[in-house]
């Protein structure tokens, strides 16, 4: 009889374990199906990213009981937000800038961050942005004091409908105590980062329908001059290509740009796994699940961390983005073009990488005299400025030692092998670089092609780090 009872106990345990494992697998499958099928993505495209991010595994078994409520990843979360300052936006904007802030033990940078956003934007840019500040602390006295400061310093922005301050009551938050301690984090650290995930989920949910795009900032950030114009130029340059996240800073979740239509799903995602890991790790998983395998980050950075004390326990945090440039910089237009070269390309450092706005480059083996890197524009263009940089800091000798830059007209050939019949030389490379302005005044024809020509063989390999083209007006067709 005892043996029978032991046998049945073992069977119950096995069934229980099997059920838990099955439910865990079911949740993962449903999550993937929801994220992929809804947008027509194929699961195969995300397999490599899932393997790459396996270091920080998500464990959905704990969320089986809440999955029913979160399965509609495109729907908004039902929350009553309190407007502490401002009113609902009268019209949709181009970009929403979201900030979430809590009381700090040391330092308070929120007002300086808001000030930087507005001061670094032109009058025309201000018409296209909305700033949403979420005061996410449960201390009502602190919230009232901060709202009063914001209302006094930025009253005209609130009246103009470009600044809103919101708060979510504590009743809407999930359990924040007694959470599991992943990565051996202390309990207070787990609580802090878990609540932060929920804070951002609520903020994203609120901002989902305010604009076309959304950028995530922290409450201790300084902005580059005319950052919106730079962001718009980058978005325009990415037209026709798929992306989930564009990054304008290399620090944490500062300067992460999203399509607003992805915000509801991102909000649900952060809520579902709020206690699993820090927000910036979850953002990487989200990007991968939506089939963006590689980081798409732009340099120089548009946003800089300026705080010295973290919102967690007031600990020192002196992280700085060394790619940040505060003064206005001009992002090139780089109009659509076909790229080709007759040089021997090293591994996957293909021609397209030199013309990209992302931080990558073309790398070819030792070129010979007469070798070239060619650009054939999809449409004839007027060019105002051209800049080409070769070599890198790590490989300073892999530059173009002897070369010239030429522009051409009169295209012949089919789409696969188009080229220009005549070229005009604009100048020679100096120390591996080339730059020329006022091109439209020096070239009288509409430009169809551009090429970098090697004028003398070299034993060193060649890195073309960046090719930047600025256009003037579009020529009459």
Automatic annotation (TrEMBL):
Pfam families: MGAT4_cons, MGAT4A_C. The keyword Membrane applies. Keywords: Glycosyltransferase, Membrane, Transferase, Transmembrane, Transmembrane helix. GO terms for biological process: protein N-linked glycosylation. GO terms for molecular function: acetylglucosaminyltransferase activity. The chain crosses the membrane at residues 20-37. Residues 337-465 form the MGAT4 A/B/C C-terminal domain. InterPro entries: Glyco_transf_54, MGAT4, MGAT4_A/B/C_C. Residues 62-324 form the MGAT4 conserved region domain. Pathway: Protein modification; protein glycosylation. This is Alpha-1,3-mannosyl-glycoprotein 4-beta-N-acetylglucosaminyltransferase C. The gene is MGAT4C.
